[in-house]
Amino acid sequence: xxxxxxxxxxxxxxLYVAMIxxxxxxxxxxxxxxxxxxxxxxxxxxxKKLVKGGVLKSKKGxxxxxxxxxxxxxxxxxxxxxxxxxxxxxxSCVLRFRKCNAENPCPLHxxxxxxxxxxxxxxxxxxxxDLLKKNHPDxxxxxxxx
Length: 146
Description:
By secondary structure, the chain is mainly α. Helices cover 50% and strands 4% of the residues. The protein has helices spanning 5-20, 29-36, 40-52, 77-84, 109-125, 128-133, 139-143, and strands spanning 57-59, 65-67. The longest helix has 17 residues, at 109-125.
């Protein structure tokens, strides 16, 4: 399963903000964009979705920026897919057949259906805090351009 750029930017931006918030109260969009090497305008739209979805908070002004709150680390990856619109992929045919469903399955429908359910379980049981708990010494390097 391949996620959209929106999901990737949302996850990386969220992880970056969560990591930086340990030492800094807020992170500005320009810093996130620069460190993650992503387009500022597109990242701004994605980060706004995260705020609107209740995953992050933001404050405007020269001392403003994005910051986490009590629900941020418990946000699941499945919730993040809903915010970024990636849930549409669950209903589409892996072979891109138009009429693929349980009553009219494509040749791979049953095998892929099992995998989709397993993948959905992984996304539902993994939260942002879980990703940050991994003792990976180069974690920041894996999501950012340093």
